[in-house]
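Chain X:
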Amino acid sequence: MGPVRDRSSPGYLTWLVVGLVMLACRPPVAVPPLPSKGGPVWIEAATAHFTVWTDAPDRAHELVETMERVREVVVATALFSGHVDTSRTFVIAFANKQELGEYLPKRFDGFASSAGALFQPVIVVAADSLDDTAHRRNLTHELTHVISYGPLPTQPRWFSEALATFYETADFAGNRVEIGTPTQGRLQQLHHAGAIPLARIFACNEPACMDATFYANVQALFAFLAAEHGAELGEYMKLLAVTPAAQQDGLWARAFPSLSSLADADHAFHAWIAHGTVPVRQYTLQNETWKVDTKPLSDADALAARGTARFVVDSTVLPAEITAASSTDPSEIVARMIESRVTNGIPIDAARGVVKSHPADWRAWFLLVRALHDGPEAHDAHVTACDLIAKNAILAPPNFCP
């Protein structure tokens, strides 16, 4: 047996202090443990238009109410011709930007997706986006994307980003909102890098070309169209609503005949940037409070939330968190919906188990139809799913119900 160190000696105390300091200075774990393992509680906060799953329960009400405010403004002031999607947006709100960064590509502060597997729009954000103006604007940006997916299911990338950057200018003061004043960062970038040709804007379809200069230009472009070609912009949006994505390239010339020559359009756009007036709209919120229903979520739900965040970025791969969610709770319906999409259907017994656990949820019956393919049981499941969809006015798989 070796010598016994006196634990009151200066050497031991010195190393103990050093160890404690190093532990205190260590950055927090980006992905916290599951609730049952001592991690933060996950809850659901739901309003008429949003279902938020978050591990920041103290921010849930503020977050979902902020989303309702943004939605009201966009729906009331955008040129959607009265067609507005009534389904709920599914929101994954991680507690902070560090946790969010574990799931999204670098430089992304949020992510919006139509998330076909869930048949509803999905946003992935950080709850602490509420803490500063820049990240609140980013939240508004992503919300505008998903709100516009209802009336405009497919959009050219330039238009999608132009619309979202225009609405990220929304400045809330009580129940008054002002929209259109360019954000300082966008103005500075436009002044620094200058306007770019519309052909380059229209050709940008990948994140690689969507840099700060691109965003500054599309924000200015939407403001230019709203100011100088408002009626044509409305016509363009009407055409987008009814035109398949593959045929949308020709809509610019149809909706904006005076700008059909891109050379002329560039000249008009760049002249407006130099000398034009920015249109600023004002709106008064009609709703001041929203009914918010909350409930606790399970470990399986937390895993499904994390897996959904990965899935919306890459829908070709089944996230490990989705597999873990299904293993933890075989009836976790969000995980099973994503699993069914990636693997082309879950096992029949698993689908029957989901129906048993969620008999009032159309998605459970949809999973059973998809697992069975055909036969009397599949027919009955299809009838039940469509009946539930009709009663709840829920967005459903295209052509699924007669």
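Chain Y:
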Amino acid sequence: MKLMERIRTGIRSFSIEAIAIWFAFWDRRIRWYKRALLALPILYVLSPVDLVSDMIPIWGQADDIVVLRISYLLIRKFLPAEALAENRERAAKFWHGRSVNRIVFWITTGAVWGFAILVLARYLYRKLFNHL
């Protein structure tokens, strides 16, 4: 298996798993405290308060990755297996389908990432060029 094919397969499986967790968050069979388990890691990563500051080059991002990995393992353990399998199947259909929902999903995702990059670029520009 070539490297690019392995990378594509990894990205595809990660994306399907992320969409499945998103679908699981909105699944009515899952109790509220398990939904909180789904939301808390994302809130931690997005919050400005971290165990290790994000300004430290490698360690700042490593704690976010560790929190996401541990939360993913907990999600797989505590969510009902049948609900998670059903949401994975639904996510795979969503990923491979050509529906309007998928187009809206990718446009929204692109807009959010574009906005985040714009805010980061503006912040870096101000930090770098205000000292001149």
